[in-house]
Amino acid sequence: MKTHDIADMLEKVRSICLALPEAVELIDGFGHNTFKINGKSFVISGESEKGFSLSFKSDRETQELLLQKEYFFKTPYIGHHGWVSIQNPVEENWDELTDLIQEAYLRAAPKRLINK
Question: How far apart are CA 14 and CA 19, in angstroms?
Fold first, then answer.
């Protein structure tokens, strides 16, 4: 995977996440781009030798449904909290990912932001 592809994917994630009210981007202790609302993470992205990975907060029911698709997997270390990941998403995944990222935000956001 080329570096510019990873940069493009990070830009996509950034544009989706930062369009949401009060969302912020931080670099965590592992060097991952972490998107938070009110101190709670809702999306984490990173890169490794396998390329670009994107993880998002979910619930157990949604996680179970997503894991039936071959391209999603349980996020290491935090998967038991309902987090789901995808490695090197392709173009046709992005509509679904945009919805999932927005849902992840709603799971983490304070009620005062959701009710607007």
Answer: 8
With beta carbons less than 8 A apart as the criterion, state whether 58 and 83 touch: yes
The verdict on pTM exceeding 0.85 is yes
**Residue 88 backbone zone (phi > 0: left; psi -120 to 50: alpha; other: beta):** left
**What is each CA distance from 50 to 76, 89, 110, in whole angstroms?**
15, 12, 34
Examine the pLDDT at 114 and tell me if it is beyond 90: no
What is the rounded CA–CA span in Å between residue 90 and residue 21?
27
What whole-number distance in Å separates Cα of residue 38 and Cα of residue 40? 6
Which ranges in 24-88 belong to alpha helices (H)? 60-67
- Which one, of 10, 20, 19, lies nearest residue 105 by Cα? 20
**pLDDT for the residue numbered 116:** 55
> What pLDDT sits at residue 11?
96
Q: What is the secondary structure of 45-57 as a DSSP string?
A: EEEETTEEEEEE-
